[in-house]
Write a structure and sequence with these properties.
By secondary structure, the protein is α/β, with parallel strands linked by helices. It is built from 36 helices and 31 strands. It folds into four domains: 4-238, Dna Ligase, domain 1, CATH 3.30.1490.20; 249-338, ATP-grasp fold, B domain (D-amino Acid Aminotransferase, Chain A, domain 1), CATH 3.30.470.20; 376-513, Glucose Oxidase, domain 1 (3-Layer(bba) Sandwich), CATH 3.50.30.10; 550-639 and 679-892, TIM Barrel (Alpha-Beta Barrel). The protein binds adenosine-5'-diphosphate and magnesium ion (2 copies). The site of one magnesium ion (MG) has 6 residues, from helix 31. It comes from Streptomyces triticagri. The active site is at 455 (tele-phosphohistidine intermediate), 853 (proton donor).
């Protein structure tokens, strides 16, 4: 068991053992880049420490051996009084994680060695600056002292001297600050700042280990489904100094623009500063390009290194570097984060450069990024120029989109205003289930509290509604119906714009521009700005790669010809779910009421025969729109009471009429029917195939409409490919009865029209019992379509409409799941039923066609799962089709 690796011993594939930072430091070292020497303590050591409560016995000696080697190489000892070797202790897990310990720089400095450092560097100020930084970082992260105490003390020192930046403090000031800092440590931590350099190092290493198990880190892991037992590595890296004067400095850089993907010089540089200063924004950085005039040699070398890294990693990298008196040092690199648009551009650019192939390019993008590119965007060029809309602040981008509306501060007003045609943004400190109506009515939701798993965020995402949450600068005053932001007051009725993709909040109306990517999918791409053309070109190519390799077909959930045509433009290869319930709404409601109220067979048949031609026309249009492609039509699914008037409204109407003594016979019968059909739990009541079995003639009417429509399309030389789908089947007997009836009707239509029809009959698998008996059900079904929405509800025993708004927030916060099982399929539970049903169904009927039509059909992670279990297609809403195509390609590549 080896617990410590020198930077020369590791490589980038050892992230499990060395963490991301350590693996990449090793990779750079072995590429011959200038990395300050050091070593990495493995995640194994961390795991053993966490399990046993103390460091593994061998660790101390191994660290000593590596430290000896490092000291020999550097020609000085850690904390040596006259010329100290200093190191940084840096945490580095496999995945970077908020809530984990930060880095401690300048370890090895003490009251004695600070003098040595001053003498060696010939710079008193530098030495004392480094020492005060050590006490500050060590105090905060290792000893748990409140960091603000140090910052306040630093502020005071600056104020006392009437200066604004820390570089204006001289050696004497910093020396005083060190004394002050040490006092803070003593009172707050109850111990002296340790003077023994090895003790400093060991304590820092241990603190990094311990930080693996902070509450925040644990919560983050649970939510992101990062295993809790990975442990973190610790990097010990010899210090290089960017704070040694104007010929020193520190910076960050990207090998290409993370916003556009364009190659060029992107980054920031700060003269005379140590690492953290750049990110902390303590002083103003200069654009990296200016380094060329500051230090041409280092600049040229950096450019060269950036090219080496890009060619080596075959991707955009971000880097941290420091220049010590004209000598460049690399301190970190990793494959860098990028915007969604840049991800597509970079992937195709790298293909063009010959660095990666098409299959790899597909792995460089994902469906979430594509979805992001498909939202309409704000054109915020004009914002903050003093005339147009004004940027008020920023919150957490919780649910994407661009929403504009009048500010309202309570749900009641949101509903009232939106009923009268106003667009509103609901602004709350935080939302709770009582706000649901207002959230539905609003264009977007803005809160000043709560994170990505807050009620507002979860519910908004579920509704596909724009949401910015946790905008902490906003002071929301519900009582006075206004909010204040840094002195600015926004009253009820003022127009605000919120950007759910960036978290930006504006006062005023920001113009919304449609996504060029959607314009492209719609075939309406205007040759406009080059920016957009370039993006669309990249998306086009990536989609072509995906379509070429994917095995899963992608269908749409669409109920009418218009949606079907749009879906086709977006690349749908059929309709996986046509819901027939909308065909029972609007002016047809009256016929449905008649059907429900029918006392005699005759009345019922009259009602059905009125519905038949209407349904048929719907299907003719749909089959024409999808000519040549499969169309799965689901027979009526929702409970009948959904087609009847609201019970309260109707009761009031009847009561009023009675008091006027002119009660209406029809209303009375309706009310009786409403009472009769009222269910405590309609989701588990009389719906789906159960309706078909108890309402004579209902399903056969629908089947007849489908068959006649198909016959008409055939007669017109079309190519209709209808599939008839029976919902909510739990047992094969239900299916057999409906099937026998349907076959009879189809035979009748064939006889009367003289057209031979090939209509497939199949079922949804959306109840656990159906999944468990899939082998039997497949005897009567030519296809299965997994209805994963209902399957998730019934497997978990969750009523979706209730649970998302009530306790999902708590579940997400406790990390019981990282994402709602209605968003991403629960692979272990629901998924395992799907997997077994696929196996059993195919065992009975090897050519069984298999698909999925729940919302999961358009969810990236779920699409990968459906690919893996061997479904033939996924079906999703038209807008999600490109995402599903892309992810199906990524799953297969
Ligand atoms: P993070 O993961 O937060 O970036 P790092 O370990 O990279 O933490 O360190 C924080 C800052 O300190 C970075 O700017 C880094 O470049 C700098 N730094 C870390 N180690 C050294 C070192 N040995 N010499 C000089 N600067 C360092
Ligand atoms: Mg870093
Ligand atoms: Mg269902």
């Amino acid at each position: 068991q080896k617990y410590v690796y020198d930077f020369t011993e590791g490589n980038r594939d050892l992230k499990d053992l060395l963490g991301g930072k350590g693996a990449n430091l090793a990779e750079m070292t072995n590429l011959g880049l200038p990395v300050p020497p050091g070593f990495t303590i493995t995640t194994e050591a961390c795991k053993e420490y966490l399990a046993g409560g103390e460091e593994p016995a061998a660790l101390r000696d191994e660290v000593s051996a590596h430290l000896d080697a490092l000291e020999a190489a550097m020609g000085k000892k850690l904390g040596q009084a006259d010329d100290p070797l200093l190191v940084s202790v840096r945490s580095g897990a496999k995945f970077s994680m908020p809530g984990m310990m930060d880095t401690v720089l300048n370890i090895g400095l003490s009251d004695k060695s600070v003098q040595g450092l001053a003498k060696q560097s010939g710079d008193d100020r530098f030495a004392w600056d480094s020492y005060r930084r050590l006490i500050q970082m060590f105090g905060k992260t290792v000893l748990g002292v409140d960091g603000e105490l140090f910052e306040d003390a630093l502020e005071k020192a600056k104020t006392a001297k009437k200066v604004t930046v820390d570089t204006d403090l001289d050696a004497a000031d910093l020396k005083k600050l060190v004394t002050r800092f040490k006092k803070i440590v003593k009172t707050e931590a109850g111990r002296d700042f340790p003077q023994d350099p090895r003790e400093q190092m060991d304590l820092a290493v241990r603190a990094v280990f311990d930080s693996w198990n902070t509450d925040r880190a644990k919560l983050y892991r649970r939510q992101e489904r990062i295993p809790g037992d990975l442990g973190t590595a610790v990097n010990v890296c010899s210090m290089v100094f960017g704070n040694l004067g104007p010929d020193s400095g520190t910076g960050v850089a990207f090998t290409r623009d993370p916003a556009s993907g364009h190659q060029g010089v992107y980054g920031d540089y700060l003269q005379n500063a140590q690492g953290e200063d750049v990110v902390a924004g303590i002083r103003n950085t200069v654009p990296l390009a200016e380094l060329e005039s500051i230090d041409k040699n280092s600049y040229d070398q950096l450019m060269q290194i950036m090219e080496t890294l890009e060619t080596h990693y075959k991707d955009l990298c971000d880097i941290e570097f420091t220049i010590e008196r004209g000598q460049l040092w690399m301190l970190q690199t990793r494959v860098g984060k990028r915007t969604a648009g840049a991800a597509f551009r970079i992937a195709t650019q790298l293909v063009d450069q010959g660095l990666i192939g098409e299959a790899e390019a597909l792995q460089r993008v994902n469906g979430a990024q594509l979805a992001q590119l498909m939202f309409p965007r704000f054109d915020d060029e004009g914002a903050n120029d003093g005339k147009g809309p004004e940027l008020l602040g920023r919150g957490i981008a919780a649910s994407p989109g661009a929403a504009v509306g009048k500010a309202v501060f309570d749900s009641y007003t949101a509903v009232k205003w939106s009923r009268s045609g106003e667009k509103v943004i609901l602004i709350r400190r935080e939302t709770n289930p009582d706000d649901l109506d207002g959230m539905i009515a609003a264009e977007g939701i803005l809160t000043s509290r709560g994170g990505k798993t807050s009620h507002a965020a979860v519910v908004a995402r579920g509704m596909g509604k724009t949401c910015v949450c946790g905008a902490e600068d906003l002071e929301v005053d519900t009582k006075r119906r206004r909010m204040t932001v840094g002195g600015r007051v926004v009253e009820e009725g003022d127009v605000v714009s919120i950007d759910g993709s960036t978290g930006k909040v504006y006062l005023g109306e920001v113009p919304v521009v449609p996504s060029p990517v959607v314009e492209y999918f719609e075939g309406r791409m205007h040759a406009g700005a080059d920016e957009a053309d370039e993006l669309v070109g990249a998306v086009h190519r990536i989609m072509a790669y995906a379509d070429r390799v994917r095995r899963l077909r992608v269908r749409a959930n669409a109920d009418n010809a218009e949606d079907a045509l749009r879906a086709r433009r977006f690349g749908a290869q059929g309709i996986g779910l046509c819901r027939t319930e909308h065909m029972f709404l609007g002016e047809r409601r009256e016929m449905v009421e008649k059907l429900i109220l029918a006392d005699t067979d005759e009345e019922r048949e009259t009602a059905l025969s009125q519905l038949l031609p209407l349904q048929k026309t719907d299907f003719v249009e749909l089959f024409e729109a999808m000519d040549g492609l499969p169309v799965t039509v689901r027979l009526l699914d929702p409970p009948l009471h959904e087609f009847l008037p609201d019970i309260t409204e109707l009761s009031v109407r009847v009561a009023l009429a009675e008091s006027r003594k002119d009660s209406n016979e029809n209303d009375l019968r309706l009310l009786q029917a409403v009472h009769r059909l009222h269910e405590q739990n309609p989701m588990l009541g009389l719906r789906g195939v159960r309706l078909g079995l108890v309402i004579p003639g209902l399903f056969t009417m629908q089947v007849r409409a489908i068959a006649e429509a198909a016959a008409e399309r055939k007669a017109a030389k079309g190519d209709p490919r209808a599939e008839i789908m029976i919902p909510l089947v739990g047992t094969v007997q239900e299916l057999e009865i409906v099937r026998d009836e349907a076959e009879q009707v189809i035979a009748e239509v064939e006889a009367s029209t003289g057209v031979k029809l090939k209509l497939a009959l199949g079922t949804m698998i959306e109840l656990p019992r159906a999944a468990l008996t899939a082998g039997q059900i497949a005897e009567a079904a030519e296809f299965f379509s997994f209805g994963t929405n209902d399957l998730t509800q019934t497997v978990w025993g969750f009523s979706r409409d209730d649970v998302e708004a009530s306790f999902f927030t708590a579940y997400l916060e406790k990390g019981i799941f990282g994402v709602s099982p209605f968003e991403t399929i629960d692979k272990d539970g629901v998924g395992s039923l799907v997997r077994n049903a696929v196996r059993d169904g195919r065992a009975t009927r090897p050519d069984l066609k298999l698909g999925v039509c729940g919302e999961h059909g358009g969810d990236p992670e779920s699409v990968h799962f459906f690919h893996e279990v061997g479904l033939d297609y996924v079906s999703c809403s038209p807008f999600r089709i490109p995402v599903a195509r892309l992810e199906a390609g990524r799953a297969a590549a």
